[in-house]
Write a structure and sequence with these properties.
single chain; 254 residues; mainly alpha; 2 domains; 9 helices; 0% strand; globular
Length: 254
């Protein structure tokens, strides 16, 4: 949807002085209906069933037999497993509804970042403000003070690291979307969990990056999306955030 919007905006800008208006193509979550990206044939309802439809079709389009991306069943599986784990952990509570929305948005961000090296503001800002709203009004996962401080310190800390890296290496080391994503977790779970998220993400990212380079599946100078590693470690704070904060306070106070 973002790419379609950008294309329409570019066309409108380039044809600004033309008398003929450019028709805007409608593309959202409802229009057009689910279709094959290759042949654009609509997908029948039975083939749209999560995971089951993919298995019935044997991983191919029912019309043109083009290979269906593995992203679809993986996203469906992750969403189902995450939803089950969250519902089991929180039960029938408002926390469950909140973290379900957060988790579905984070799963989308993982695959967008993997495919396009992009963390869209439409998702990151929406989730960030939602976390602030829930904590400021309901103290759902942390106090209002911790949430606000978490959002501010999350953004500023990565902004400083990225700019120091750029000053030393003369190249961009991190995208601005990562700043907002880190701020998002601070807004949801408080500033106390941020050091653990960044340490975990850096460790996991370094290990995977080294393995990918050694296996020649990734070039050293080619950027690696950092968002998925932040998301995995940040999502775990849903389950372990309070435990970590309690341990942290005990460590500080002795």
């Amino acid at each position: 949807m973002l790419k379609n919007t950008w294309q329409q905006e570019c066309l409108e800008y380039l044809n600004l002085n033309q008398a003929t208006p450019i028709p805007r193509k409608i593309f959202n979550l409802f229009i057009p209906r689910s279709h094959c990206p290759k042949c654009e044939k609509p997908i029948p309802f039975w083939a749209n069933m999560p995971i089951v439809g993919f298995l019935i079709l044997g991983g191919k389009c029912h019309a043109c037999e083009s290979i269906i991306s593995w992203h679809y069943p993986v996203v469906e599986l992750l969403s189902g497993l995450a939803s089950f784990a969250l519902a089991y952990h929180f039960g029938v509570t408002i926390q469950t509804i909140a973290v379900l929305i957060l988790s579905w948005g984070l799963i989308a961000l993982i695959f967008i970042d993997l495919d396009h090296m992009l963390l869209p503001d439409n998702l990151t800002f929406t989730l960030l403000w939602l976390g602030l709203l829930l904590n400021v009004t309901l103290n759902l996962f942390t106090t209002a003070e911790n949430a606000i401080l978490g959002a501010i310190s999350g953004y500023i800390s990565l902004w400083l690291v990225a700019n120091i890296f750029k000053l030393i290496r003369k190249v961009e080391g991190m995208g601005h979307g990562d700043f907002k994503l880190f701020a998002l977790f601070g807004a949801w779970f408080g500033w106390q969990v941020l050091p653990f998220i960044i340490l975990g993400a850096t460790l996991i990212g370094s290990i995977i990056g080294i393995i990918a380079i050694l296996s020649k599946k990734h070039q050293f100078k080619k950027p690696l999306p950092f968002g998925p590693f932040l998301i995995v470690c940040g999502w775990l704070m849903i389950f372990y955030g309070e435990t970590i904060i309690t341990w942290y306070r005990t460590l500080i106070t002795g």
